[in-house]
Amino acid sequence: MTKVLINQKLVDEQEANIPYNDRGFIFGDGIYEYIRVYNNKIFTAKEHFERLLRSANEIGLDIDHTVDSLTEIVKELVVANKIVNGGVYLQITRGAAPRDHRFPTPPVEPTLMGFSKSYGRPFKDMDQGISAVTTEDIRWLRCDIKSLNLLGNVLAREYAEKYNADEAIQHRDGIVTEGSASNAYAVKDGVIYTHPINNYILNGITRQVVSWICEDEGIPFKEETFDVDFLKNADEVIITNTSVEIMGVIKLDGEKVGNGKVGPITKQLQTRFNHYIDTHCV
Question: Cystine design at 90: which of 86, 114, 122, 170 (Cβ 3.0–4.6 Å)?
């Protein structure tokens, strides 16, 4: 029987329940992380849980957890569900309380929930590349917080689905920000460009890994804004996230990117990413 984590207890998924007035349901008042599992181990756990704690602090959510305690909780879920390769979703809400936009007074116990799933690595898409469309970024102005409020992302992803694309790359007033569920990059003349870290994007964990790889490999990595035209004229377009890892975009808004194949910089990053898996799992 598949186990689900509810407030630090592992329960059968059919018995898992959360109060109807949990603020995560009513307001999207909470935060989350999605962590990859490779060979029974958690990838970049420290980075993920440091970001979770930062998100909690940014929304004024006091949680009684550390990086180490969260890591152990996720490990228990991985073991319980025998996850060899896959991922774990972990979210924390402000808890259950009568509906009121104000924070509960006095504070109530936060609700912690987690579940896992098994799946392999996306080797086929990494080799062949994917397609994307561009769309206006209509999300709120604190995209650096990994909050449960994802309606803007959902609508962007559905826009991509409408045009038979795999991802939507968003822009604010023509300046590329990030994908609906990914960070986005343009490669031009051997240089990788990506949006600077600020409130318009999430500082993705895979994005951080890419920056480390670039430093090790001597690949120029520039955190600079660029517009949609620059993206469309790039030699390579890349997206990254925890699930897809490092993915080449070979078609954008129905037109070929570069020569229409996964480019050499993308492949170099993918190869080095494999080494990071070996050395950054716990």
Answer: 114
